Amino acid sequence: MISAPLFRLKRNARQMSRAEGIPLHAALDRLARAEGFQSWSHLSAAQPAARPAQELLSRLDPGDLVLLGV
User: Fold this and answer.
1) Considering the entire predicted model, what is its pTM?
2) What is the pLDDT of residues 36-53, one digit of tens each?
3) 26: burial class by Cβ within 10 Å (0-12, 13-18, 19+)?
C-alpha cells in the first residue's frame, strides 16, 4: 500500500524535480523507491486502475453531494 494517491505522489515528484533541478523521471523513481518499489513504473502498475464502487460509496456521509461525469 502506498502512502498517498498516485496523483499526489506525482505532484510531489514534480515539486522535487523543480526544487532539486533533477529530471522528472528521476524524481518519480526516487519517490517510488521511498515507497518500497523498484521504479515509478512498478509503483503505478501495482495500483489498481479503478476502485470498486462500494469502496467509494463507503466514504460518503449522509448529505454528501456527488458529481458524476462521463
Assistant:
1) 0.68
2) 999 999 998 887 765 667
3) middle
